[in-house]
Amino acid sequence: MMVQGRVGGVLANWKIDTGAKSTFLTKETYELVVDKPVLQPVDINYVTANGQRLECLGKASMTLIFGDKSFKHEIIVGGVNSNLIGEDFITIYRCVWDHNESCLVIQGSRIPLEASDRKMSSEGYCPRDYPGASWTRGRNKVRIGPTINLCQQNPAQHVNQVTTDTDTSIVPEHLQLVFERGCKHLKGEQVEKFKKFILKNQNCFARPGEVGRTHLWIHKIKLKDEKPVREPLLVGGFQCLKDKQ
Questions:
Q1: Is 154 domain-assigned?
Q2: 158 within a domain of the structure (yes/no)
Q3: DSSP single-letter state for residue 243
Q4: What are the CA-CA distances from residue 184 to residues 41, 78, 181, 188, 193 (Å)?
Q5: Average pLDDT of 154-164?
Q6: 181 in the same domain as 83
Q7: CA 139 to CA 216: how far, in whole Å?
Q8: Which of 79, 75, 23, 21 has the alpha carbon at shortest distance from 55?
Q9: Which domain, by its residues, includes 37?
Q10: Above 70 in pLDDT, residue 158?
Q11: Of the candidates 218, 214, 217, 216, which has an alpha carbon nearest to the alpha carbon of residue 205?
């Protein structure tokens, strides 16, 4: 669908394109504007449906006039072959199509649609008519009831934070508490090194039911009520001590 409007005092045809994210102006139309605005660099990379990158000259805020309404809007210059009214303009000014009257309604102003001078196809194919052959028309299958959009993209939250893997699933059960307490002040590769250390030396830790080192018990030796007895000095030792004196 095409409409006529003015940009910078120049009358131009505009194609209504709901697939374009922004409003575009061709380089040729921009050159016709007498009082050209200064173009600012474009900070967004625009690509076509086939994946090719658009070589845009820049962007500028320009005045668009449709009927008796004027709009100040940001326009991308260059990169396209025809002037495009994009989704941003349609959404901001709530453009509505009136197919019964063949016009575009912008804030109550009705802009008649113009016929496009471009052909959908420059060449045609006429198949040969064979005797005994009949033409059939294929029909597409339509699902009844609600359907799921398989190409639906759900936005995800971007978290600029490095997470640490503290998964204890591969750590033995009797060492999970040791691993969790040991990772409290560790980060990044330190956690992985600590996990490898525990797994490598897991046989050094007592398993449930096994006897290991503990401070839960104090061992005592009970000597009943016997008093310690002082052993007498050996006779040979006493004689040596007397000779020295």
A1: no
A2: no
A3: H
A4: 48, 56, 5, 12, 14
A5: 57
A6: no
A7: 82
A8: 79
A9: 2-114
A10: no
A11: 214
Torsion of CA 84, 85, 86, 89, to 10 degrees: 150
- Rounded CA-CA distance 32/7 in Å is 10
- What are φ and ψ of residue 236, in 5° steps? -65, -35
User: How many Å apart are CA 56 and CA 58, to the nearest integer?
Assistant: 6
Same domain, residue pair 10 and 97: yes
C-alpha–C-alpha distance, residues 56 and 210, integer Å: 75
Phi/psi for 66 (5° steps) reads -125, 115
The answer to whether residue 37 sits within a structural domain is yes
Place of tokens 């040991």: 182
Residue 91 located in a structural domain: yes
End-of-domain residue from the set 98, 114, 130: 114
Give pTM, 2 decimals.
0.45
pLDDT in tens, 66-112: 888 888 989 999 888 889 888 889 888 888 888 777 888 888 788 88
